[in-house]
Specification:
globular, Molybdenum Cofactor Biosythetic Enzyme, Chain A, 42% helix, Maf protein, five-stranded mixed beta sheet, Alpha-Beta Plaits, alpha/beta, 17 strands, six-stranded mixed beta sheet
Length: 427
């Protein structure tokens, strides 16, 4: 592999700078490139201004071996990336009639006519490469000169990602920029803090001095990346170390790679050939959404109830009025009743529920802001777990969902044998 020393990303768009849209492109491209030993060394977010784009690109082109831009290739007046870069590189833009033909055919398939301003997207670099866009009208562009590579990608996520994975990665591989195998092994953990995970894995660092361990924390999940400090450890050795790390992590280990907690729970349910229903109050559907993001989840996930008001808890889940009056909606008792009610009303084997005070209002002496009660109904028993989080409302909701999924994951694995026996008896 002939690996470039530097890779820079330039994300274009006023909407990124004013906070209208999250810069998910940087996260995605960084993950994809690092996976194959090509880490991003610098990134810039630039306004949709011709001079600003030229300045940023000129600086990046002078320092980097690979420059990737996102956005600014569309048909509107603020899409200036193509023109700015062409000026900076002093190369000619040429009109490609084949691009126009593809755009016209795309609009014709939708029963529409191509507008004149879409012709702007038909210009490409002379002696450059055009990347077809199967999801939109703006093609990607690649240009190489002086041992450097420019990769220009469209801004919409549903256009950028397929283009990058299906076209750009193979080109980078062909040019010798990517490793032949993944550059690191990732272990996903949940339920323990970063410092606790680090302490459990400390002996690995002491045993393997050429091993590098990096941590990434997000909403209760801690991802651990194992890589070779000097390039001498092959993936086979990293996998060997990874399995040793798994043993040291114990129940905190979730999976290798980046599989979601919902997908892990789904796999456990499929292995048992059983089903799940959910009930949630303060998380407002995020728990159910986590399962519907898993392909094929309908084989195990039956559905859920968003029971934000007490009346809905009573009418749809059968939570007793007396229970709510005595213990309140944010209580262990209510969480258990919600979990059991969801399982019974939706005819599921398992029920999982969340109720709590996500903030910034609410809370009381017994249940301060950030208190979350998780209910779990299973064929061998019902339980409740209480957790407390600090932070903003959205952060608390996201952590509550992860806590619920992680707790169910642990419960299923702990009682799998007993539950298997209960299924065998009932079946």
């Amino acid at each position: 592999m002939s690996q470039p020393h530097t890779v820079e990303i330039i994300n274009l768009g006023d909407e990124l700078l004013v906070g209208i849209r999250e810069n998910s492109h940087l996260q995605y491209l960084g993950q994809q490139l690092a996976k194959y030993g090509l880490p991003v060394t610098r990134a810039q977010v630039i306004t949709d201004d011709l001079a600003a784009i030229q300045e940023a690109f000129t600086a990046a082109w002078a320092c980097a071996d690979v420059v990737i831009t996102t956005g600014g290739l569309g048909p509107t007046s603020d899409d200036l990336t193509r023109e700015a870069v062409a000026t900076a590189l002093e190369i000619e833009l040429v009109y490609d009639a084949s691009i126009e033909s593809v755009i016209r055919d795309r609009f014709a398939a939708l029963g529409r006519t191509m507008a004149e301003h879409h012709r702007k997207q038909c210009y490409c670099f002379k002696n450059g490469l055009v990347l077809p866009n199967d999801q939109g009208t703006a093609p990607g562009l690649i240009y190489q000169a002086d041992g450097k590579m420019l990769i220009m990608l469209p801004g919409p996520t549903h256009e950028l990602r397929p283009m990058f994975e299906r076209q750009v990665l193979p080109i980078l591989q062909l040019e010798g920029h990517l490793s032949d195998e993944p550059a690191y092994l990732q272990l996903r953990t949940c339920g323990a803090g970063e410092s606790t995970i680090e302490a459990k894995l400390q002996s690995l660092l002491e045993t393997h001095l050429d091993l590098s361990i990096a941590y990434c924390v997000h909403y209760g999940i801690v991802d651990v990346r194992l890589s070779s400090r000097d390039g001498t450890l092959k993936m086979s050795k990293l996998k060997e170390i990874g399995h040793a790390a798994r043993q040291q992590l114990g129940e905190d280990f979730v999976c290798f790679g980046d599989c979601s907690l919902a997908a892990v729970v789904y796999r456990e349910l499929r292995a048992l050939d059983r089903t799940l229903a959910v009930a949630e109050s303060c998380t407002g559907g995020l728990l159910g959404d986590a399962f519907t993001n898993v392909p094929g989840a309908s084989k195990a996930f039956l559905g859920g109830v968003i029971c934000y008001s007490n009346d809905v808890k009573v009418t749809l889940l059968g939570v007793p009025d007396s229970l709510l009056e005595q213990h309140g909606a944010v209580s262990a008792e209510c969480a258990i009743a919600m979990a059991t009610g969801s399982a019974e009303r939706l005819s599921a084997d398992y029920g999982l529920s969340i109720t709590g005070f996500a903030g910034p209002e609410g809370g009381n002496k017994d249940n301060p802001l950030g208190t979350i009660h998780i209910g779990y109904h299973s064929p061998v028993g019902v339980w409740c777990k209480t957790v407390r989080y600090t932070g903003g409302r959205l952060d608390v909701k996201a952590r509550a969902v992860h806590a619920a999924l992680d707790w169910m994951r642990r419960k299923i694995r702990k009682y799998k044998f007993e539950e298997f026996l209960s299924y065998s008896a009932s079946d």
